[in-house]
Amino acid sequence: MTVSSTSGEVFCGEAGGLRERSSWALRSWWTLYTLSFDGDEWSAEEGENESAEVTVRTSPEEWATLLAVKGSESDKLAQDLRIEGSAGNIQEFLHTIGARGVDL
């Protein structure tokens, strides 16, 4: 699934397993995007949105690599992410990006 934004496109993976609505903040040292799922579609906005349930600190390269790999490799890369949020929201985020074998 691809999310269009004013400054490009962000790959976001399948939304299977998400609650009806979710919102994630992706923060790198120079920019911040908030990805939101409304139950049907993803949207992306530059900047921070207070509705973000999970904040992920990563570089664009790390994010792209994480979404490009599968299985146990995804789990290994996800272990190194810096993620803030409740345990349930973090688990939902990890499951959605395909990192299902990560222990919190």
Description:
The chain has 104 residues and is α+β, with helices and mostly antiparallel strands. The protein has one domain (2-96): SCP2 sterol-binding domain (Nonspecific Lipid-transfer Protein, Chain A, 2-Layer Sandwich), CATH 3.30.1050. It is built from 3 helices and 7 strands. The chain has helices at 60-68, 72-79, 87-96, and strands at 2-5, 8-11, 22-27, 32-37, 42-46, 54-57, 82-85. The strands form 2 sheets. Strands 5-4-3-6-7 form a 5-stranded mixed β-sheet, with helices on one face. The protein has a two-stranded antiparallel ribbon with strand order 1-2. A hairpin with a 4-residue loop joins strand 4 (32-37) and strand 5 (42-46). Helix 1 (60-68) packs antiparallel against helix 2. It is globular and about 30 Å long. The chain starts with a strand and ends in an 8-residue tail after the last helix.
- CATH first level: Alpha Beta
In the CATH hierarchy, what is the superfamily? SCP2 sterol-binding domain
Radius of gyration: 12 Å
- Helix tally equals 3
Span of the ends, CA to CA: 26 Å
Strand order of the largest sheet: 5-4-3-6-7
CATH topology: Nonspecific Lipid-transfer Protein, Chain A
User: How many distinct folded domains?
Assistant: 1
CATH architecture: 2-Layer Sandwich
Structural class: alpha+beta
Number of separate strands? 7
Order of helices and strands: EEEEEEHHEH
Compute the average pLDDT.
Answer: 79
Q: How would you describe the shape?
A: globular
Low-confidence spans: pLDDT under 50, at least 5 residues? 1-15
Helix share, percent = 25-40%
Report strand %. 25-35%
Instruction: Summarize the biggest pleated sheet.
Output: 5 strands, mixed
